[in-house]
Amino acid sequence: MSKQIQVVGAAILNDQNQILATQRADARVLGQQWEFPGGKIKAGETPEQALTRELEEEFSVQAQVGPAVGPTFKHEYDFGTVNLTVYYVRLASEDLRLMAHGKVVWCEQTQLGKLDWAATDRQIAELIGQEDLTQLSI
């Protein structure tokens, strides 16, 4: 059995309900693929606490975590199985400092399918593309 990695991600929405997509830096694992920002859950953290911490570390911004996009999605990579749960998030500011990503882009729902997502994130992007984001309360 492969190593199980518990990860949280953020489907960050702006005031126009565009979604923030982040491209992994070239030198990182899965470099140049697109993902929802976030990271590993540390021992003793709830997923929401982990996501708040990760967004502070990655972008130096405060976040308000909302509901989960859907179920936890899994994908087996060479380095282990990623178990990813993505939450809808609103940020206190759109002034982001890029610490772990090479590029960010705000996407309309219809644009999500055009990016080269990491395998686990692709499943989430497809789900978000079908959601009615105007009904979200965060």
Automatic annotation (TrEMBL):
Keywords: DNA damage, DNA repair, DNA replication, Hydrolase, Magnesium, Metal-binding, Mutator protein. This is 8-oxo-dGTP diphosphatase. Residues 3-130 form the Nudix hydrolase domain. The keyword Zinc does not apply. Its EC number is 3.6.1.55. It catalyses: 8-oxo-dGTP + H2O = 8-oxo-dGMP + diphosphate + H(+). It comes from Limosilactobacillus fermentum 3872. Belongs to the Nudix hydrolase family. GO terms for molecular function: 8-oxo-7,8-dihydrodeoxyguanosine triphosphate pyrophosphatase activity; 8-oxo-7,8-dihydroguanosine triphosphate pyrophosphatase activity; 8-oxo-dGDP phosphatase activity; 8-oxo-GDP phosphatase activity; metal ion binding. It is an enzyme of class 3 (hydrolase). The keyword RNA-binding does not apply. Its cofactor is Mg(2+).
